[in-house]
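User: Quick one: structure for sequence A, then sequence B.

Assistant: Sequence A:
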Amino acid sequence: MSAPFSKGQSVSEYLERYESNDLLRFLTCGSVDDGKSTLIGRLLHDSGRIYEDHLRAIEAASRVHGTRGGEIDLALVVDGLKAEQEQGITIDVAWRYFATAKRSFIIADCPGHEQYTRNMATGASHCQLAITLIDARHGVSRQTRRHATIASLLGIRHVVAAVNKMDLVGWSQERFREIERDFLEVCRKIGVGDPAAIPVSALTGENVVTRGANTPWYSGSPLLELLESIPVEGQSAESPFRLPVQYVIRPTPDFRGFAGSIVSGSVKVGDRVRVLPRGVETRVRRLARSEEDGGDLVIAHAPSSVLVMLEDEVDCSRGDLIVGGGGGAKAAEAIVAHSFEADLVWMVEAPLMSGAEVLLRQGTRTTNARVVRVKHRVDVDTLESHVADTLALNDIGRVEIEAEVPLAFDPYASVQGTGAIIVIDRLTNATAGAGMIRTGDALDPHTKRAHWETMPVATLDAPHGRSLVSGKEREARWRQRPLSVLLFGKPGSGKTTAAFALERALWDLGHAAIVLDGQMLRAGLSRDLSFTDEDRSENLRRAAEIAKVLNEHGVVVIMSLVAPDPIARERTRQLVGEARYLEFDCGKVAAAAVVAAVMASLHG
């Protein structure tokens, strides 16, 4: 490797320029044999980032273990384990560092086999961008969708598809565009914004570091140019301060410091802070550091490791969380609760069952915990959620967990360092699952959740009395069977138009019907809700409870809501009753068909 010095540039100037570069951590993932290791090897080789002695060693290993008939096999740049070289696959996460004149990089080459999904999740948890390799011959695979979903759950905002082995499909533009459409649809479903796809050949190097001659129809950047230019989100100056306490250091009676790594925000001497979960407030007296290291700090930022001394003798120990106090954005409250919901990647063969007793690692605290229930599982083929009560090996799902002690945390989307969890098998002490906290305890004032577990009381048989008008009398009076009809779909799908058309048709035939529109509810009953998944679910729940009450009084209720969560729709069916429930996806069913189906049900 030759250092790319500019003419007249000194070694110190060269080092200073590279030290000032910002850092991008990215991983490569995808199915086995898609060419992940070869792509990284090509990226390092063609950018001049492989030392000559290393290159000679790779050439020698290629003659023994290579897959190219004795020619240099660039996959061996990162496949360092003997088993990897013999099998031509990646088993463990391989980390590599390199830099260009524009940016520094840390690469995680992740294994493609399903049995090593835990290794992929570990690598992804440290990265800001994911490159998913797609074999142009096979297209988007199940493992592609699984890895993209895990990357999205872990908060990776940039996902790039390197459509590899394009030379094996004749550099077909039509094939690339087909794969690109499938990949963009996957990203849309999992909520990844601004994805990109690049046609490459890791074997020949086209569109990896330099643009290839075989893709005149591709107007985008080569992979390295994209990696150098994609924006890297840094910590905001207003990020809340979070310091999980790892050790309490007390070498003398007069010195008591709390050591750990800042996972978010910053802290300076004199700042007010709080120690959670107890909530005791004090001030920072010192940010201690030895004279050999330059003496005490005035201010420290994430991800620095610090030793904090506090003004007061507060009760603080390993596992506690020191957060900003005194108000302001940097003092944004963390959640203190026993229970929470989390998205979990299950990593062992023994399935996870509702009620399982586990060890839970959150921040620097390890405690006993119980999986209250498995709520749903993600189908990696369709990327839809399905009701489930277990998670099998490599499944991704949402669970509700209750810890033995109160924990201080943030939703993973807000602060990754306090929102990540590890589930540990109590018998083997092996890591069984990795998760991302989504919501806090229902009693916590800083979180909202859909209260599906709170079942409404039947109004005709209320605790304080029974209605003197029976359900059969109401059906005879209104000459109809009560129904709850849910019309759902994306904004602009025509669900509200269909709802009022159905109401008009029922009215003209003498039926009693009422429309509950989602936006109408948000103007009054649901004005406290936003547009998060949880709040959309809660809006549907409130509409369903009203519908149940009106059904008991003999009225047909037409609900018009976005309702994107199939789990929430299934709970709506259970709440109002199977016999009284119909639902229609207005993105797929015309209004006339809805009217016909409801009429048939009313008089069937």
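Sequence B:
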Amino acid sequence: MLKKGMSLVVALFLIFTAVMPAFGAESSKQEFEYATQRDSTKGSKDLSADNNTSKNKGKVILIDLNRTSLSNFNNIKFLREKMKNDGHVALMNIRGDKGYDDRRNFASMGATGRVNIQSEIELNITESDKKLASLYRSATGKNPGKINLNNINEVDLYNKTKGEFKSNVGYLGETLNLNGKKIAVLGNSDYYNSEGKFIKNRDFSLAVMDGSGRLYNGNVDDINKENLSFPYGISTDYEKLISETNEFYKTSDLIFVELGDTFRLDEYKLELNESTYKTMKYSIYNKVSNYIEKVFEMAGENDTIYVMSSFPSNLDYSNNRRLGTVVRFDMSKKGKGLLTSSTTRREGVMANIDIGVDVLNRFGLKNDEMVGRKLTEVDKASSLSFIEKEYKKIVAISSIRMTVINIYVAFVSLSVIFGALALWKREKIPAKYRKKSLDVLKELMKFGLIMPLAFLTAPILGASSEVQLALSIVVISIAYYLIGTRIFKGDDIKQIGFFSIAMILLIVIDSVISTPLMKANIMSYDPMMGARYYGIGNEYEGVTVGSAILGMAVLLEYKKIPKWLATLFLTVILFTSAYPGMGANVGGAISECIAYFVFVLMIYNVKLDIKKIILVLFSTAVLVAGFAMADILLGIGSHLGNFVKQIQLNGPMEIIYVFARKIDMNIQLAQTTVWVNILLVGILMISIVIIRPTREFLQLKKDHKIIYSGFIAAIIGCLVTLAVNDSGIIAAATDSIYILIPITIMMINKKNKIDGKNIC
């Protein structure tokens, strides 16, 4: 019956993965609607808005110093002095949909989610004369604003058909407009490209335009002047900018200013030597400092001012420093510290999609279709030094991440392959070296279980450079190996159980205390990638399934705990890893629930039939629904709660879109990620030992019945996580490590034992 049950699970998985992407794509095509055709979105009052700008009808000013950084802010005199005692700062994820660039970043700030915009098309954002106004009206069926994105339909079509998230653009601007708030934009980043062609760059307007690409006030065309001592011979006319900022301040609620000279300086840098670059930079920063000082002088006591670098410089980007900078000043109160949001749950780190939501919150408004979260303040006197140290760690982890993971995956794959080959062709190894060779391979394979534990422990040592991180991992890995092999000398199964129990205990403890180790972990998520910011990462989702089952199986095998206690432990693990306020991994909740449930049924010798499988699936659905309800009622705002809200807004078809996207992502990962190597090795080996088991494996199954049950449950966990997680290949690969390595080690021990008897 077990084989029939597993066959059903595999069949359902194959059908699900084959049908869902096509069905989701077809449904998406049928329901596509241009932004200029959809109904306007007004949003609603945000009763939770607790700031003086919203309470006292203050204004918001957003100043962008594109292509700079926090260190550059310290070179701008007024900002440097201001930030010594005032302002809350955060590093900002700048990722758009399927990549990084200025326009996707800006558009994502004011949209429902990340936006995808072609990098090669020209965005025709300009003040409309009669001809352009008529062309806009003919193309969109809408009355034009003063400033329009004339090719809004082309931009929207690409985003909706090529984008991963199908986000709606312009929700910030539209929500403000429909609630009577006036928006003005000032400035541009116009420049000449490498061919000498003049490029109109007004991409910043994407952040605050409405859904039809319109802005009703501002100046993006006539704000520059000729200045041959500045990049491209172009300079912002700061006298005019100050004057117009003052005028628009009187008539607008939100002003977004783009100080284009910082962008032009970065683009022009290759034309300059070190001396001329410093001269231009000094001149530009003096102008910028003076302008920002004037803005603070004209701002009212209830206003909010954001100063940000929306995108890093080309040099920073190439050196893997791929976070923007945002400083928020609340004019009604003095205070210094950090910004954070429930998007990241990380002090001093936010996402670009949080900007639009926070601006709405400053006006006492919200739009539930926007997936970003408002920013909250964390007072910290040493905020600037804290941010600098955090950024250094983030960059170091991100820079070394793929190198270490590639080494780890190659190590696990090769050690298991060599171990399997040595078992298969052991007769080819000289008798006097046979046992020693197999033992060496066996000991090396243990590091495949140890290193995920070392990755998660390494942040405790506080390493902040690539070399320090690498040394930390090596030292901790050796330490764990020595501890395990000394305490349980000569018993490989107990050592494997020790490494697995230590792993799952550390994951549970870390989840309970808001995952500080997971956030600073080489094998976990990366704030610059922005796929996940908190909870248990996809790599450790598989580790959670595999290590928990293997650890419990070993304890039960040696009768160290009763079955009811193992069931209780697995329940606690499931809760901490799936609860929205802790591990917050929805895919993990589903795969863990099914895998743990199957394992518990097997250790109690309950036969897996169709009814039991249906019961497992139903229990999983109830569990996920319970966590979703807790998320919404408690206002935690995790991925699961956001998913439920999107279903409420867009209907049940949202479920199909999401799962289709997850499967499509797995298809892409199968072609790119190094983790697929472990998964392929796992599929091959598991297929061999289950479909055509050797005599020794059958004996292993008989001698270690509970551990074998654990292997079956972990395999089911692999299949489930492939289907329900957008990085299922990664999670399935890390889960399979806790199947492949123990099986290989146990088979080596069986062979050594047989060879020893034969010699005797």
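Residues 383-424 form the longest helix (42 residues). Residues 214 and 402 are 42 Å apart (CA to CA).

User: Thanks, that's what I needed.
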